[in-house]
Write a structure and sequence with these properties.
This protein is α/β, with parallel strands linked by helices and 269 residues long. A hairpin with a 2-residue loop joins β8 and β9 (197-204). The protein has eight helices and nine strands. The chain has one domain (8-252): Ribokinase (UDP-N-acetylmuramoyl-L-alanine:D-glutamate ligase). The chain has a six-stranded mixed β-sheet with strand order 3-2-1-4-5-6. The chain starts with 7 loop residues before the first strand and ends in a 21-residue tail after the last helix. α3 (87-99) packs parallel to α4 (122-132).
């Protein structure tokens, strides 16, 4: 009897030298959730739990070469896109997606690191909106990111979150997960906005500062679910449970002196 092949998920993102976010978080998430992870690097960062001290962008032609190498050989079942700091990098990824269509795309519009460091140039916001939003099956902005994409105030209520999700769909995204981690109250509520309506995903808000890589991990967990063939709503539900557990166990790691990473292998170690 032939065993089924492991689903392959790909991350297109920047590297976090501290290991808590970016490519490193994505690959850990894929592994924890039963996917083989491949990667396409868009930038290198000098980074740890205290902050980002330098960013080195990967040339667009080399981003394209990585995409062609991966997609020419691997049976990619889902794709997660993270840090893209400059317009040429965004254009290279958009052109690569046009050459290699088919796999569902989860776009995490990474703009600012948890430490406060700016990761996306102002000029890149428009390029991201025009070139990548229409290619995304799901985008996963947090509240400040959604506001920046829309040129609006940060949503304060679930009604405002829903309204902004609908507006982002009007800009081309097929579905939007409005992440409520920057909100207030005892629950962190995410809203999945699709053409079918709105689904609410609440979770208790954890009392920890060790949340480095939360957004990267959630979007990668959704991509892993899609790679396994789960419908979008089920993939989001499973990913929400996973990130809630990873945050709850984050203090067990004791990594670094600043905002430490979430615990990607909380259910395995």
């Amino acid at each position: 009897m032939t065993r089924p092949s492991i689903p392959i998920a790909v991350t297109i993102a920047g590297s976090d030298s501290g290991g808590g976010a970016g490519i490193q978080a994505d690959l850990k998430t894929f592994s924890a959730l039963g996917c083989f992870g491949a990667s396409i690097l868009t930038a290198l960062t000098a980074q740890n739990t205290l902050g980002v001290t330098a960013i080195h962008d990967v040339p667009p032609d080399f981003i394209a070469a990585q995409m062609d190498a991966v997609f020419d050989d691997l049976d990619v079942r889902a794709l997660k896109i993270g840090m893209l700091s400059r317009p040429p990098a965004i254009a290279a990824v958009a052109e690569g997606l046009a050459r290699w269509p088919g796999a569902p795309v989860v776009l995490d519009p990474v703009m600012v690191a948890a430490s406060g460091a700016r990761l996306l140039e102002d000029a890149a916001v428009e390029t991201l909106t025009l070139r990548l939003l229409p290619r995304a099956d799901l985008i996963t902005p947090n509240l400040p990111e959604a506001a920046a994409l829309l040129g609006a105030d940060v949503a304060r209520t679930e009604t405002q979150m829903q309204e902004q999700g609908v507006r982002l769909m009007g800009m081309g995204a097929r579905a939007v997960l409005m992440k409520g981690g920057h909100g207030e109250g005892p629950e962190s509520v995410d809203l999945l906005v699709t053409t079918a309506g709105v689904t609410r995903f609440p979770a208790p808000r954890a009392a920890t500062r060790n949340t480095h890589g939360t957004g990267c991990t959630l979007s990668s967990a959704i991509a892993a679910g899609l790679a396994h063939g789960f419908p979008l709503e089920e993939a989001v539900a499973k990913a929400k449970r996973y990130i809630t557990g990873a945050i709850a166990a984050a203090d067990d790691l004791k990594v670094g002196h600043g905002h430490g990473p979430v615990h990607h292998f909380f259910d395995l170690w």
